[in-house]
Amino acid sequence: MALPDLDVRSVLNVVEENFQRVGLKAYAIRMIYIGEHAIPKDEMIKHFQATINDVNSTYCEINVNGLLLVYDSYFVHIVEGSEDTLHRHFRFLFEREDKWIEQKRREEEEAALALEEEEGLTVILDEETEPKREFKMFKCLKLLIVYNSLQTLTFDDWRALTARPPALISKLDVNGPMSEHMEQLRICLDKIRRIIALAKADDNVL
């Protein structure tokens, strides 16, 4: 009795075949994070757009695509890509913030010197009584969820939309039980999922 043919494929062969089947070059992930920003909405969108362009202009197993919702003080960012490209997106974003802060400080110093020269005065500031202005692009960032090993990508491009924040139905209790926090997170993710569906169905939505 003849023995059946053995499967001599390696794990790498199986992984490569799976990637070919779904049309990907690497494992794809979807990340949803939120944050509070301290600059105008249009300027915030430009910074994110530049970061996405910088990432996608280099070699990428999977380009970074997604949807950015920008409110007056907050934003929601849904991004898809490989683990490497999304990490690169964050690195470029934080580097861009550092450069922006340096530029703002330099502009403030130049404006102060120009004012002194114009008035013919030399102003000596006491650091304790006259603290330097603090520049921030982001006040805080929070990661909501990461979806790993995606077989189907939701987005085929990246775009940003401005919107008005929805009304808060009930006030969150920071000291409440974990079950309430998880329920609020579930509601939030469900609303984000519906927003994604609307945005994909109509390019002019929101």
Automatic annotation (TrEMBL):
Pfam families: TEX47 (PF24787)
Alphabetized InterPro entries for the sequence: TEX47-like
PANTHER family linked: TESTIS-EXPRESSED PROTEIN 47
Full protein name: (African queen) hypothetical protein
